[in-house]
UniProtKB/TrEMBL annotation:
Organism: Spirosoma sordidisoli
Protein name, UniProt field: NAD(P)/FAD-dependent oxidoreductase
Record keywords, A-Z: Oxidoreductase
UniProt xrefs under NCBIfam families: ArsO_flavin_mono (NF040505)
Keyword Cell cycle: no
Listed GO MF terms: flavin adenine dinucleotide binding; monooxygenase activity
One Pfam family hit: Pyr_redox_3
């Protein structure tokens, strides 16, 4: 027999840092809500990062609302490792007794006059308000090059890269101009011959600039823009942070990027000058798109996976909010420290949207 439909005020889709932040503020409203997450445990995208991945900022600059990330002891005191972020998110869920359901994959969202039907692989929910905080890590982007399907070596997206060991002694092509590419290049180049390809010359930040500096500069720029001033051009959140492994790669002389090849062959690539070069593995560090396929039936998702929003509120779908993802849903909302602000605003808007708003959160 079909399971009964479960009713609640708010369904939060995605239990990564963004979903948890929204939940932190939602619990203060006294509304009923549930967080549906398709992973087997806490951590969101951090579960899938490569083994050596570390935060760009110290613990105290990487906290979710309400409870600072504990500062790790010993050699990790500087920049917390991936596992420490996972442990923090896990403890955060427990501390605030957040109503997570795992693993539950939301397949489709449909809208009715009085709210949404949320269809999942574990039954159906109905709610007048929905928060979509599905992140992007489940939706890696691969550019298309002629001949790509013919390549006989291994092609891997950074989303599925874990560690360099299995690449030892190989010829490895690394594609992409961001932090993922730089960090993966840094460690793969210790065991393999690497070639790095970027669309334009990569932008390296000064050695003493970490996530904190980037965030405060970006904040200044944000306020300047809000105030109608033209902001000074400074580092962007996507520019390459010179973490120790990337500095070491520079010292070894391997942090050199060249412009793209024109096509892929069975053995490797062909450069614009006609020269061929063979590779065993291509690692695509070419980014992600918002995981918004589940919103397809609403007809509000553009080709980039984005939705028109005012802040986090979907303009063309009353009762739907999108949190995380990056600046288009709120300044720095794709960072641990930045998402709290849009999470609070979102919870306030939802509380006001639902009948009988509670006084204040
Ligand atoms: P996610 O963490 O992706 O969580 C979304 C959750 O929703 C996941 O569990 C996902 O599986 C789930 N989900 C997706 N679709 C569905 C569905 N249909 N049904 C149910 N569940 C679903 N950020 C920082 O703050 N500091 C840093 O130093 C930092 N360094 C980074 C370094 C690199 C190399 C990269 C790539 C990213 C870094 N980030 C950093 C960014 C950070 O990893 C992400 O922005 C962040 O994880 C986004 O959180 P989120 O909660 O929005 O999404």
């Amino acid at each position: 027999a079909e399971e009964p439909i479960q009713e609640t005020d708010i369904v939060v889709i995605g239990g990564g840092q963004s979903g948890l932040s929204v939940a932190y503020f939602l619990r203060r409203t006294g509304r009923s809500f549930v967080i549906l997450d398709d992973q087997p445990r806490a951590g969101g995208a951090w579960l899938h990062g490569w083994d050596s991945l570390r935060l760009f900022s110290p613990a105290e600059a990487s906290s979710l609302p309400g409870w600072p990330m504990p500062r790790p002891a010993g050699p990790d005191a500087g920049f917390p490792a991936r596992q420490q972020v996972i442990d923090y998110l896990d403890a955060y869920e427990a501390r605030y007794k957040l109503p997570l359901r795992r693993p539950v994959r939301v397949e489709q969202l449909t809208r009715h006059t009085d709210g949404y039907t949320i269809r999942t692989d574990k039954g159906t929910w109905r709610a007048p308000a929905v928060v979509c905080s599905t992140g992007a890590w489940t939706n890696p982007v691969l550019p298309a090059y002629p001949g790509q399907a013919d390549f006989r070596g291994l092609q891997l997206h950074s989303a599925h890269y874990h560690s360099p060991e299995s690449l030892a002694g190989q010829r490895v092509l690394i594609v992409g101009g961001g932090n993922s590419a730089a960090q993966i290049l840094a460690e793969v180049s210790e065991v393999a011959h690497t070639v790095w390809v970027t669309l334009t010359e990569p932008t390296f930040l000064p050695d003493d600039v970490d996530g904190r500096v980037l965030f405060s500069r970006a904040t200044e720029r944000y306020h300047a823009t809000q105030a109608g001033q033209s902001p000074a051009p400074t580092g962007r959140l996507g520019d390459i942070v010179m973490v120790p492994s990337v500095q070491a790669a520079r010292s070894r002389g391997v942090l050199q990027a060249r412009r793209p090849f024109v096509r892929i062959t069975t053995q490797g690539v062909v450069w614009p000058d006609g020269q061929s070069e063979s590779f065993d593995t291509i690692i695509w560090c070419t980014g992600f798109r918002p995981a918004t396929d589940l919103l397809g039936p609403l007809g509000i998702v553009d080709r980039e996976g984005r939705v028109a929003t005012d802040g986090t509120r979907a303009i063309d779908a009353p009762g739907l909010w999108l949190v995380g993802y990056g600046n288009w849903t709120g300044f720095a909302s794709a960072t641990l420290i930045g998402v709290g602000r849009s999470a609070r605003q979102t919870a306030e808007e939802i509380n006001a949207y639902l009948p009988q708003p509670q006084p204040s959160i």
